[in-house]
């Protein structure tokens, strides 16, 4: 990472910086509230790095949930990242060892950024993408540690503050909507998710996997039209 690439990438990550510091603090605070030291917040954020998955992890750890339940719920919540990865194969092509990190670091917010930004002229494209992903990860780690340390020192009621992550994703989703003129994938995802929610019910998030399957199938069918629109 050189200074020119960092200067080009950083402004794009500022919204994530603000959001990840906030929701990272919330995660760290929640983890501290159930009795875990700040060290665990740092380890989880470095090695797991899945916002909603880590929020879920707080409840699983607090309730000493069985390993099988933890694995199943984590799979359901993070299954969407398979869709993200498939759509980024072309962008990550030729990144060498960095490709593995890019796959690991593809959170909702990083995906939203990478899907909508282009490297400025004179900046290596692959290094630009890598820098965005790395900065976002560092923001999350910093927020988690700050929150865990603060939570160890200050005791408050943390009920409801996990909505901060949902709020951040909604803000980024609105920005993506405003910056893109083609909204068919949004309507497809909304309709498919609502249909699966009505059919399968909300219990344990079991509607998510069939909803994602509908979205993937629909995007594959719509791919020629979407790519044709992007090229025109």
Structure characterization notes:
With 232 residues, this protein is an all-alpha fold. The protein has 2 domains: 3-177, no CATH class; 181-232, no CATH class. Helix content is 78%, strand content 0%. The chain is built from 12 helices and no strands. α8 packs parallel to α10. The radius of gyration is 19 Å and the shape is globular. 25% of the residues are buried.
Any descriptors?
mainly alpha; globular; single chain; 2 domains; 232 residues; 12 helices
Content of β-strand: under 5%
Count of DSSP H/I helices = 12
Q: Compute the gyration radius: what is it?
A: 19 Å
Mean pLDDT over all positions: 83
- Taken from the alpha-carbon principal axes, the silhouette is globular
Percent helix: over 70%
Strand segment count: 0
Domain tally: 2
Span between termini: 33 Å
- Helix and strand sequence: HHHHHHHHHHHH
**Major pleated sheet:** none
Structural class: mainly alpha
Low-confidence stretches: none
